[in-house]
Amino acid sequence: MGSNDMLRKDPAFERWMSMRENAHRHFRPNPRNMRTAFICFVAVPIIGFFLADKTALKMDAFARKYDESIWVEEQKKAERKKD
Fold first, then answer.
1. Which of 22, 33, 49, 68 makes an SS bond possible with 63, Cβ 3.0 to 4.6 Å?
2. Which run of H or of E encompasses 12?
3. What is the helix, strand, coil percentage profile of the chain, to 5?
4. What b/e readout covers 26-64, taking b as 16+ CB neighbours within 10 angstroms?
5. Are 69 and 78 in contact (CB under 8 A)?
6. What averages of pLDDT result for each successive group of 10 residues across the chain (83 residues)?
7. pLDDT at 4 (0 to 100)
């Protein structure tokens, strides 16, 4: 019967797979990693929360007609023009 070693193994590929599997063991914080972590885990959420706060309660998701705006301020302006 055949053995499990019938395939030739590429040493470079084996080294790459080993480093990929153990990346968390070889991680070292440096300025580049910290900049990326800051952007991903601090700056993006702060910007997202800021934008959500600025647009909170300013949109009406249930616009009554096709040509109506979803922005509450524009709806109020349109109602004032009608009066």
1. 68
2. helix 11-21
3. 60, 0, 35
4. eeeeeeeeeeeeeeeeeeeeeeeeeeeeeeeeeeeeeee
5. yes
6. 71 93 89 95 96 82 71 78 72
7. 66
Q: Burial of 23 by CB count in 10 Å (0-12 exposed, 13-18 middle, 19+ buried)?
A: exposed
Structure tokens at 1: 């019967």
As a residue count, the chain comes to 83
> Both tokens of residue 67?
């040509």
DSSP per residue, 21-47: HTHHHH----HHHHHHHHIIIIIHHHH
Phi first, then psi: give them for residue 5, nearest 5 degrees: -100, 30
